[in-house]
Amino acid sequence: MSEQAWVPVGSGGLSNWRPLPELYPDWIPVKSDIRPFIEIRMSRSNQDSGQHQILSEKCVEVLRVWWNGDANALLPQDKMSCDSHFHCYSTQSPSGRIHRSFADWRERLECDDFGNWWCSGIRNAGEHYSWMKYEGGTLEQLGLALQSAMATGDNELAKICCLKILDWGGVRHRSQKTLDWIYSASERGALICEIKEATSVLCPNSIASLDCFGIGANKYPMNSGSTKIFAAAALDFSDSIDSPKQDVIIFDGRVGASLGLIASRLSTTLPSEFLFPRGDQKQRNPSTGTKKFPAMSMKTVSDEVRARFARKSARIIQEVLGNYAPSTEFALAEKALFMMGYNVTQNCAGRRI
pTM of the prediction? Predict the structure, then answer.
């Protein structure tokens, strides 16, 4: 695919951007602003649903301090000591390679040759977001394409957009359950309806049951692939295509690991409802002492359990931000958790956290 195959969404770019040039060369997302679909608008309207606050006021207070971080600690890595970081790690593998997803971070921040990643606070972690460039577009662009296909009721087009989202996330090869659901729902003409239902239920203001996730006929998957699709469907472009708002989290192994790390820092003892499922990799296990965070691959972490933690995590973010509606700050917090969760076991000096 040539570099001219698509034009980024932005001022003057939307009318020319072709998200699917190899399959639908003449198709473009609808040119008008896309309103969130009615099902998620109804879930988001439950702001007075009587839900109890998940965090104590003390926890919220501490997390807001951590969110803002140290404004004076925004110097390049080589001018800071490891102890001054809120969180940090080396991006080098044992073989000395640095994953290509950190290329953007290294270029923007002029990092040292060791490729160390750091942040001065949770917000700053989001500002230090880095991911692989995908020729098919960004998640925001692909979310716009998916919502456009959903708005026109085209299940086949929605299927292609979902597959593109899996490719963007680099998870198509390990998302067989999600692929089976996408193809099955598309063949039944139900993919759009099911995306709407699953996404609406994951909305933090939703009071609906999460039993639509799990095993069996017409049950929705909740894994590193499908969570990206639901988040893309939830992006709110009503204010700006360039700065969409969000309230449905991409709950993958890195985000779960990051939430576990933060929970460990907040308390020496944790009830089970704060033992967030985390990635299976060794560097994504924040467990210490009696605080055992389950791997997402464990049989006890069903799709329904994962969906419950996803919705709870989104609600916690809103409590810390003090905003119970979709926001650009929520999207930044999601990016922050993703970056922090790459490694929660060692800092950039190689010491155990």
Answer: 0.91
